[in-house]
Amino acid sequence: MATGTTNSARERTTNNGQLLLYGALGGDTAAASRPAGLTFSTTGEFFFTAQSTIQHYDASKNLVQAFTQADGLDHPAQIETDENDTLWVANRDGNNVLRIRTDPANKLIREKVSGITSPRGLAFDRDPNTNEPWLYVADQTEIYRFRVYDTVHVNITVLEEALISPLSGTVTSKADFEKRVRRDFNQARTIFTQCGIEMLLEGITFVADPNSDSGRVNASSVCTPLPTPEMQMLLGTNRSANPLAINLYYINHFLILGMPIPRNGESITNDCYTSLNNQTGGGVVIARFSALPAGTLTGGAVDNTVAHEIGHFLLDSFMNPVGPGEHRDVGCGTNTNRFHIMHGTGCSTRYTLDPLECTDIRTNMDESEFVELF
Amino acid sequence: MHMLVPLLIAGVVLASEASASDPSTCATLDAEARSVLQTFVERYYPEGSEGECASTSMYAAQAIIDRGESMLPCLLDVHRNGLGKTGLWLHSTPAPATTPWALELIKTIAPETAKDLYRGQLRSLDNPLEEAAVWLELARLGDPEGLRQITSFLRLQSKADQTRARPLVNNMLDAVAVQHYRPALPGLEKLRAEGYVNPLLPVFIAQLKGDVESLKELAAEPGLAGRVLRTLVVMDRLDVLQSLADDPYYRYRKSARETLTRESATAKTE
User: Fold this and answer.
1) What is the mean pLDDT of chain A?
2) Is A164 in a helix, a strand, or coil?
3) Is it the case that residue B231 has pLDDT exceeding 60?
4) How confident is residue A303, by pLDDT bands cut at 50, 70 and 90?
5) Are residues A72 and A90 in the same domain?
6) Are residues A133 and A182 part of one domain?
């Protein structure tokens, strides 16, 4: 973004001190036909609108490219670059806002906002409390606010039977358990924010166990075409109306073949259940309690289990590895055969996603659709 | 699943064909195969006080399955004799008395071998519910007698028995649907008439009746859509699936398209 001082009507310094003259863009004065919006990137690149095009010049005043009607432009008004130098366009007669990755070798244009009328202005700001970035868009009569991050929607369902300790019979109140659920969710939210992904909580709902089995759910021990019938019943309960939301369930504890097992959570996708459709039958299951080898039930999921299982859900899998894969190795630290979020609960690296796994989350062939881009 | 099932699958250890002094068949595995099995055992039985991620354990299981029948002798050994003599149990605690996962792996790698093992279990049982649980496993493997037996079980259940054996009943309902076993329909309709609660029951009944119109209605429900789309594949009604995939007002049309694409890819592979 341009933050420099203006020296005259025809000059402007960018934030890295490079000088541009409007009238000297490679001598191409005809390019600037009825300019309406203009902005600089952090590296001194210059963009301005001209009719239904946006001209893109580098810091040396050479024309890099022109975005045109073929890119969806229709008399754009204000334009702006964000902190990542992505170009945002109030596309006036297109009645939308476009987000443009301007790298000519990797150009990408997406419609960020639609359903508004003749947007003319846009601006970025951060929430002073949460530091979340927001996009403001003005049309003829209103100003709207939109999230800047890519988003993942999460719908959480808690089995009421998960509130009851199977050992002592102690009942946790819904209010207290909801605090724990929010803590787990916020842990995941913080971790995925590192990838520029904003996790949105659709809601937390308490329901009775659809299997009428004290909140226990029989899990598979091997990958099969579909999850167990009990798991299917669970995953069919209180699903979000949004097919691209991740449905997350808290249960009391897992069983395998009727026996309590030491499992904290499971991600249910077609990576393991090959006939499963992720949108209609996928999800994440978190165990409040977990059985020790001796059979004693103890605390199940830890604070970042939710993040780990959502990681399983979103990442490409061991079964179809692209990149490091999920569980092709053991250990923490710099283990390059395993994504960080897939490290064990005791690994500090589990809290720090690396760029490769952020890329995988956005690009793997099936679950990436759950990340709403822009 | 009902608590009786582990008694059958894990608790009834068949008479060992190997003497106590024989080395474990698992000792003959090559280093890589042994490592794969070792990894699975460590993840299935995590040490310490923290549980493991089920997905992690299942991916380790998949690595065993991927090695196919070469793993079978060792898995049979573990199924019959446990982990004690295999050298795969490295924890300081005693090896578990039962290894239910071994038969699950055998079932995936060698279904016919698993059928023989289940039939062997039947010979040592005299409890009707335990027998029903073994017939269920056989039915899941497509065994005709297994399907007949669970159909009979579903038809004859009293309402009190239904409640008591609810997990078993639910698994049987799933099995007859997966196998598209139409003779089970009267039993399912009886359950519905008696008010048996299973959200998937209307899907199963419509499937076995061939009632496509009802299935299309059920396909709009968020909690049922996935199962209905899969059911249309089982029924070989790809035309209906295609119509849902083409319907611009169908919320799960993308899922329908993906189901079609996957089915098409499977058909080509086969």
Assistant:
1) 82
2) strand
3) yes
4) confident
5) yes
6) no
CB contact under 8 A, A239 and B227: no
Q: Which of B58, B89, B109 best probes binding to A when mutated, by most A CB atoms within 10 angstroms?
A: B58
What pTM, to 2 d.p., does this model score? Answer: 0.75
Same domain, A163 and A127: no
The domain of A242 spans 151-370
Distance (Å) of CA B71 to CA A77, A304, B113, B140, B216:
66, 35, 13, 22, 43
Question: In whole numbers, what is the pLDDT of chain B averaged over residues?
Answer: 86
- Counted across chains A and B, CB pairs separated by less than 8 A come out at 186
- Answer yes or no: do A323 and A311 share one domain: yes
Assess if residue A224 is contained within a domain: yes
With an 8 Å Cβ cutoff, is A247 touching chain B?
A: no
pLDDT above 80 (res A344) = no
* Residue predicted with more confidence, A29 or B261: B261
**Two structure tokens written together for A133:** 């970035």
pLDDT of A334 higher than 70? no
pLDDT tens profile B125-180: 888 889 999 999 999 999 999 999 999 999 987 777 777 788 899 999 999 999 99
The ipTM (two decimal places) reads 0.84
Which of B49, B56, B178 lies nearest to residue A292, judging by beta carbons? B49
Least confident residue range of A67-71, A279-283, B43-47: B43-47
Asked if residue A257 and residue A363 are part of one domain, the reply reads yes
- If you write DSSP's letter for every residue of B100-127 in order, what string do you get? HHHHHHHHHH-HHHHHHHHHHHHTT---
CA-to-CA distance for A142 and A134, rounded, in angstroms? 16
Same domain, A248 and A364: yes
Count of domains for chain A: 2
A31/A51 Cα distance (integer angstroms): 10
pLDDT at residue A281 in the model: 92
Question: Of A147, A173, A206, at which residue does a domain stop?
Answer: A147
Flag whether A3 is in a domain: no
Query: Least CB-CB distance to A275: which of B4, B57, B230?
Result: B230
CATH of the domain at A107: 2.120.10.30
pLDDT for res A15: 36
Are A197 and A95 members of one domain?
no
Residue A196: inside a domain, yes or no?
yes
- How far from A327 is each of A261, A340, B53, CA to CA, in Å? 20, 10, 11
In angstroms, the CA A302 to CA B26 distance is 35
For residue A353, being part of any structural domain is answered with yes
- In this structure, are A123 and A162 located in the same domain? no
CB contact under 8 A, A213 and B166: yes
